[in-house]
């Protein structure tokens, strides 16, 4: 992803460390403590993680990136999970590239993942549009108009 193609997302601006390796751009993931290829989806994921750490005050140690899990005997990876202090998933996030429209199929994908993970909140974002859902006590999902205050739930 050429640095000229890093579009402004619907997050506050952040400073990221990047480098060029073999002609490709990499971004430093402070969660995984390494440089990873800077793809459009990774750009969204890094901005979301920065938002959660800087504005939601989520300790970086409670955030999992590309977490593997099994659903219907098939291995999957969650883009980002925020865990509570007792280690249970609190927020499951699916990040898409900015040019990917958030459709019902994308929302259904993260909902299927959540059958296994059972997070209270689900987030689907392409960096421009954010769709946030909260699991109700009735097992239904309410759509929220803004990010919940997750620090109260930690």
Offer a few descriptive terms.
single chain, 154 residues, alpha+beta, tt1808, chain A, 6-stranded mixed β-sheet, 3-stranded antiparallel β-sheet, 2 helices
Overview of the structural elements:
The protein is an alpha+beta fold. It has a single domain (39-152), classed as Alpha-Beta Complex (tt1808, chain A), CATH 3.90.1570.30. Helices cover 19% and strands 36% of the residues. The strands form 2 sheets. A 6-stranded mixed β-sheet has the order 4-5-6-7-8-9, sandwiched between helices. A hairpin with a 5-residue loop joins strand 5 and strand 6. The chain is globular. The chain starts with 17 loop residues before the first strand and ends in a 10-residue tail after the last strand. 26% of the residues are buried.
What's the SSE blueprint?
Layout: E1 18-21, E2 24-29, E3 34-37, H1 40-54, E4 63-71, E5 74-83, E6 89-95, H2 104-117, E7 121-125, E8 130-135, E9 141-144
Parallel strand pairs: 6-7
Antiparallel strand pairs: 1-2, 2-3, 4-5, 5-6, 7-8, 8-9
Give me the CATH fold name.
tt1808, chain A
Helix percentage range: 10-25%
**Helix/strand-derived class?**
alpha+beta
Number of helices: 2
Average pLDDT confidence is 92
Question: Which band does the percent of strand residues land in?
Answer: 35-45%
Strand order of the largest sheet: 4-5-6-7-8-9
* Major beta-sheet overview: 6 strands, mixed
Radius of gyration: 15 Å
**Backbone shape:** globular
Kindly provide the name of the CATH class.
Alpha Beta
N-to-C SSE string, H for helix and E for strand:
EEEHEEEHEEE
Number of strands: 9
Count of domains: 1
Architecture, CATH level 2? Answer: Alpha-Beta Complex
């Amino acid at each position: 992803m050429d640095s000229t193609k890093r579009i402004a997302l619907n997050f506050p601006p952040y400073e990221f460390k990047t480098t060029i390796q073999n002609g490709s751009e990499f971004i430093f993931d402070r969660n995984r403590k390494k440089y990873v290829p800077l793809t459009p989806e990774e750009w969204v994921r890094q901005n979301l993680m920065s938002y959660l750490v800087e504005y939601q005050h989520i300790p970086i140690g409670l955030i999992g990136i590309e977490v593997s899990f099994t659903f219907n005997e098939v291995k999957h990876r969650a883009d980002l999970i925020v865990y509570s202090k007792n280690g249970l998933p609190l927020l499951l996030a699916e990040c898409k590239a900015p040019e990917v429209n958030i459709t019902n199929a994308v929302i259904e994908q993260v909902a299927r993942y959540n059958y296994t993970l059972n997070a209270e909140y689900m987030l689907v974002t392409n960096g421009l549009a954010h769709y946030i859902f909260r699991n109700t006590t009735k097992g239904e999902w309410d759509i929220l108009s803004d990010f919940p205050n997750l620090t109260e739930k930690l």
